Request: fold
Amino acid sequence: MPYEKIKNILRQSNLRPTKQRIAIFDILFRQENWHFSADIVEKKCSESGVKISAGTIYNVLNDFYAKGLISKVMIDDDRSWFDTNISDHFHVYDTKDRKLYDVEPEDIDISLPKSIKEDDVKKVEILIKV
Amino acid sequence: MPYEKIKNILRQSNLRPTKQRIAIFDILFRQENWHFSADIVEKKCSESGVKISAGTIYNVLNDFYAKGLISKVMIDDDRSWFDTNISDHFHVYDTKDRKLYDVEPEDIDISLPKSIKEDDVKKVEILIKV
DNA sequence: TTACATGCAAATGCTTTGCAGTACT
DNA sequence: AGTACTGCAAAGCATTTGCATGTAA
Reply:
């Protein structure tokens, strides 16, 4: 993605377009809809010849998440997993090879309990473990 | 619960009925279907006058979980949460007061994607954040 | 008595934080 | 210039582990 475009996206989110944020954003959105943890990003950075400290990577990912540029995947793991897919969707988790796959909302029919007011629902997380 | 009964349950799960395991089991199943983390168990133990080290509490909870005596709740938190309810069910998470509530499977209608073979599904986790 | 469990403290691994220096606006 | 961000290392926190001691079978 052209750096000017990335800069604009960051500015629109009230994030200063620093070298590190631009580099991480570029790496994250080079491929679409994938799942990553902080250490994967760190590895990808150094593979791309960009040295960014672990602390900064955590800060940048948390900033991106806070601004809604990326989402978090709820999964029972010792690391936090993020997702470039920020639209409503669910996940399939392959417990054998520990890999995550997206499930689009139109592929799942779900009706919540009547006792829950629809307006109160902030998010519905569904993880299908196979 | 009578200690003899607890001892039998532990023995049936191939767990030696030690003083600590009995005490923790007793505390866990004194109330039904509740959610707890290791530090809550530790607190409940000392409130009951039983001093059990943190390491042992983690070991015992993990043993109980491995034997299917308790279940784990998948939730985006810095601590692990367990559940005495081991039947298939889902959760509502109140993000305001950070409390969990059970949802019985008959209260939710869900149909999984056709692309997933039913026999492959190990578990379906649903968390409704309100 | 023999295998297994506990206690304690140290180690681990992810994540956050404090602060001095650096870069964006 | 002023403010925000980064780098680094240290701190934090939940959890696991190693080993000597203790306890169930």
Observations:
- Chain A touches chain B through 28 residues (CB under 8 Å).
- Residues 16, 18-21, 52-56, 59-60, 78 of chain A lie near DNA strand D (CB under 10 Å from a C1').
